[in-house]
Amino acid sequence: MAISAEQLQQPKLKILIAEDDFAIALALKTILKNNLNCELTVTNNGEEAWEKIQSNPFDLILSDWNMPYKTGCELLADVRGNENTKAIPFFMLTARADKNSVIDAVKGGVDGYIHKPFDRADLLKKLTEALQKNEAAEKPSKKQIVDQIITKLKNNDFALPALSDVAEKLTRMAENNTASADEIADLFKNDPVIAARLVALSNTASYRGVRNCSSLEDAITRIGIKDTINYIWFFCNKGLFESKNKNFAEILLKLRDHCLATAECARLIAKHLKQKNTNDYFYMGLMHDIGVVLVLEILKEISNHNPITDVEEIDKVLQALHHQFGTALLKRWNMSETLQTIAQCHDDLSLAPEVTTELLVVHFANLYTKQIGYNNGFNNVQPIDIASTESAQKLQLDSEFISSLETDVNAYMKEIHKMM
Questions:
Q1: I need a surface site. Which of 74, 137, 203, 339 has the fewest CB within 10 A?
Q2: Where in the chain is the domain with CATH 3.40.50.2300?
Q3: Quick one: which H or E segment has residue 368?
Q4: What superfamily does domain 5-138 belong to in CATH?
């Protein structure tokens, strides 16, 4: 039995060996390393083994019966008596075969014995079966995950993603039309990162004038108050689109680009349709998939107790819940009902109580940006005739304009990436 290609695709198994006989420990290490895709931790006494187990997540424990400081049976009792470790498969390495020892270990919850001298094939068979059984028992189904998340939503049992205080203040100023270029510049005059990004943005193709802007005040005036606030919101809250979890981080990175591309696409469409507040459409596009952030936050909480690593399951959960959770999050953030409706209905116009121009624009921009390569990270995108979609037809978007969008959105994203 050698390590299979399928095993190499999976995360490494974390196995603890507690054995004070160097030769036996070495033999176990050699067999496991050559036959399992694993990361081994070896200790030579029960007390050290327990310290390692408490501070590291292990998939399986192999423990000698007789060890210094803490016996294998005492270590087993500690493992089974702790909420965080009680489900770890535990095998006893022993030369003992007396009835009372076996009874004690069985009562303690041992998963099996590895008798010394051990047989390689038998050892691997027992460990593999235990690992597979434990994985099947621990792996939550999509329905279980969805039920847990919905329960948390109903009970308000979740931590809201934190918004930047300054960005939140600016959003309120924009809604009340009380923000001015001087006030915004004054807020960020001591923040060279935000200032540099706004000045660079004002000199991109989307905003460029006859001369380059060099001051923050000039940049804000050129970009416009609402668009400036939109960008500041994004720059201040870019942490919403980051995660230490590798699977979540990949989704959030794609989501970030999808939301920015959708926002710019929505603004270009609104401008083409001669809508008054094109920057409002940008914000709607930026926020339409915000529910993904909240669902991933709750998935992260659940994963702390029961790791969720199946990418397909994560994708299915996001598809099922991000509309509902986006609406709930925007409501908790006191955002407008228009924005809440867009979060709920941007993938299915039939769910909307009223199909507004705003909803049609974001619906089309969301579909279009996926088609040109800015997917949101969890949907499988199938090629479609974008010009024949309901939103394109109702907005009367002609083929020539639709074709021009790709060049403009790509140019915009290229400039934005330079600022990140």
A1: 137
A2: 5-138
A3: helix 357-371
A4: Response regulator (3.40.50.2300)
Joined tokens for residue 394: 């109702």
Amino acid at residue number 338: T
* Cβ neighbour number for residue 413 with a 10 Å cutoff: 18
Flag whether the pTM goes above 0.85: no
Residues of the chain with pLDDT under 70: 1-11, 96-108, 134-147, 152-179, 189-190, 208-210, 237, 303-310, 420
Taking Cα atoms as reference points, which of 109, 23, 107, 25 lies closest to residue 62?
Answer: 25
Where in the sequence of the chain do the CATH 1.10.3210.10 domains occur? 142-163+237-419
- Write the CATH number of the domain with boundaries 142-163+237-419: 1.10.3210.10
Q: What's the rounded Cα separation, in Å, for the pair 128 and 124?
A: 6
Can you read off the two tokens belonging to residue 281? 């459409």
Coil, helix or strand for 397? coil
Spatial neighbors of 37 by CB under 8 A, at least 6 apart, are: 3, 7, 8, 10, 12, 13
pLDDT at residue number 371: 94
- What DSSP string describes 154-216? HTT-SPPPPPPHHHHHHHHHHHTT---HHHHHHHHTT-HHHHHHHHHHHTSTTT--SS---SH
Q: What is the pLDDT of residue 157?
A: 62
Phi-psi region for residue 177, left (φ > 0), alpha (ψ -120 to 50) or beta? left
